């Protein structure tokens, strides 16, 4: 697999105080199997679909316990240079670029409105080994109340072209690399309680959205939105039993016309 172009979503992981519980939940909802915990790297445990790495779960570092949440990593050829651009454009570097053995170099950051994301400079581990198949990463969106700040930031840090979705009362923008859309940006409206901060929402592909929702709720997950049909697939927003939010989407079940968009 070639190293991903700069700005491509290339990996996702989440911290869970109950890693075994997370493995049971995602194993049943998304069909994941899990590798051995890597004690050398804080018991980092990779998830697999058909023996291809699709994500990872990890216990929190001592003193860093908090709300479980998914973190999306964006590819960078030089994590230190990306960290400098993040600072220059109003973002915060939450964890300085750190080499992870021969796997690669990681960095954690937030954009100006507070959504947290990761930067990954791949070495031996280049990121997702499967995308868009059941159980694997499908898409992601930056949810923010300050869309202008997020748009300016991401365009300055990564080589994104931007398109604004036409029509409707939804403020939705697509960040792309060349002709390839790679990330969405959604303005948070009044439907989000004021205490919910900006965040990055990760989508995982499922063969059947309704079955995935039923399984998730049976295992203690909460439905936040949906299931709903769209031109992109049938999807539902969920929170797992430990509070990490994510979305499941069946991309084979589509309804309606694809929306148009305008270059900005």
Architecture overview:
There is one protein chain. This protein has 264 residues and is an alpha+beta fold. The protein has four helices and 17 strands. The strands form two sheets. A nine-stranded mixed sheet has the order 14-15-16-13-9-12-11-10-17, covered by helices on one side. An eight-stranded mixed sheet has the order 2-3-4-1-5-8-7-6, with helices on one face. A hairpin with a 3-residue loop joins strand 6 and strand 7. The longest helix has 12 residues.
Q: How are the SSEs placed, and which strands pair?
A:
Layout lengths: L8 E7 L3 H12 L2 E2 L10 E5 L2 E7 L11 E6 L3 H10 L3 E9 L3 E7 L5 E7 L14 E8 L2 H11 L3 E5 L6 E6 L2 E8 L11 E7 L3 H10 L3 E7 L5 E6 L5 E6 L10 E3 L1
Parallel strand pairs: 1-4, 5-8, 9-12, 13-16
Antiparallel strand pairs: 1-5, 2-3, 3-4, 6-7, 7-8, 9-13, 10-11, 10-17, 11-12, 14-15, 15-16
Helix pairs in contact: 1-4
What is the residue-averaged pLDDT? 94
Number of helices: 4
Mass-distribution shape: globular
Largest β-sheet summary: 9 strands, mixed
Give me the oligomer status.
Answer: single chain
